[in-house]
Specification:
The chain has 378 residues and is an alpha+beta fold. The protein has eleven helices and ten strands.
Length: 378
């Protein structure tokens, strides 16, 4: 197997790395403190065409594929996991539209979003039901050529940015779950105050409320009653982004741990001279290699899906491995820093808070293990 990157893949990795180091990293503490990504960073991402990497040029994308997306996301997440979270959720919504949308839907809803002029969202989780599709409470009532949507969705990324929203609701007539494309900030759309989450600051989570929102029947995504297949497929591809976000955190924690070991002195010697620290550094490097190969492989597989069920298993495996490695590596990096690692003045403190969110988002890791086992035991 050839692990070498193509020229195009190397260029997008280099471009994202340079942009992140020059424009995102210097504002990392500000983003963490304010829970907000400055507009100049978003504009820079637009100029570099990083909002639609995997998607066709016909819909405003870069036609770069999912591996290029992973390569860019790793570098962005290294500087700011919150910003990477915005891009990951955005790509999750676009991925569902790209896979299930009609040509007219793709042109109408994807083009501006792939250019970063709008930001997409994906809304399934609800306050009382979590992510269990059998208990979904949001409703869709048919009214001629329209549907009237009502419901509350919880922990929704990008809800405060204008753009398309993939919204799941139960049709009153059939009782089936259907996915609809809704334009955020239409009449009847509103949002809560941001949740005060512990990490991944800058990637804001909101509750969103739809009250008597009218959408044309032509906005149904994938067909009436096809909500669950849209969800399954979309979430599988969404784990490509989550894994890339976690990989960026692994890379950042590894580099911070090594840097501190080389710079911090004890009895006039860098602590890197001590065997105990060397063992920790070795663990950092080994775990990064494992996470990198897993995340890159998932990006490669996402471009070659033949069996959606098998791909769902691969996505669950990768998400679980990489997010748990991210926790391990952040902890080791904090250990290398000693008591300094507990101070918010040091980047590893943020990396730890970011890392421990990974196993809980986009499906908790215990659920990923059930997916993995379910496919294996068929």
């Amino acid at each position: 197997m050839d692990f070498a990157l193509t020229k195009e893949q190397g260029l997008i990795q280099k471009m994202a790395k340079e942009f992140a180091e020059k424009n995102i990293a210097p504002l990392e503490q500000q983003i963490d403190a304010d829970n907000h990504v400055p507009e100049e960073i978003m504009e820079g991402l637009r100029e570099l065409e990083l909002f639609g990497i995997p998607y066709a040029e016909a819909y405003g994308g870069a036609d770069g594929g999912y591996l290029q997306y992973v390569l860019a996301m790793e570098q962005i997440a290294k500087a700011s996991s919150g910003l990477a979270m915005i891009l990951s959720a955005h790509t999750l919504g676009l991925g569902a539209m790209n896979a299930f949308g009609t040509e007219e839907q793709k042109v109408k809803f994807m083009t501006k979003a792939c250019k970063g002029e709008e930001i997409a969202s994906f809304a399934f989780t609800e306050p009382g039901t979590g992510s269990d599709p059998k208990q979904i409470a949001s409703t869709a009532v048919k009214d001629g050529d329209f549907f009237i949507l009502n419901g509350t969705k919880r922990f929704i990324s990008n809800g405060s940015y204008p753009g398309p929203l993939v919204f799941f609701a139960r049709e009153q007539e059939t009782g089936q779950i259907t996915a609809f494309i809704v334009e955020k900030f239409c009449e009847g759309y509103s949002v809560s105050e941001p949740w005060n989450k512990m990490g991944m600051h800058g990637g804001v989570l909101l509750d969103i409320y739809l009250k008597d929102v009218r959408v044309p029947a032509e906005n149904i995504l994938g067909g009436s009653g096809m909500g669950y297949p849209v969800l399954q497929y979309g979430i599988s591809f969404g784990k490509v982004g989550v894994s890339a976000c976690a990989l960026g955190g692994v890379l950042a924690a590894m580099e911070e741990g090594i840097k501190y070991a080389q710079e911090k002195t004890h009895r006039d010697k860098p602590i890197a001279k001590f065997q105990a620290i060397q063992l920790k550094v070795a663990d950092l490097v080994m775990k990064y290699q494992i996470a990198q190969q897993a995340a890159y492989r998932l990006g490669w597989l996402a471009e070659r899906v033949k069996d959606p069920v098998k791909f769902a298993q691969e996505a669950a495996i990768t998400k679980t491995i990489v997010t748990e490695i991210a926790v391990d590596v952040a902890r080791i990096a904090v250990d290398i820093h000693g008591s300094y690692g507990l101070m918010n003045d040091y980047t590893v403190s943020r990396l730890w808070r970011d890392a421990i969110m990974g196993p809980q988002i986009e499906g908790v890791n215990d659920m990923q293990r059930l997916i993995i086992a379910g496919v294996a035991l068929k």
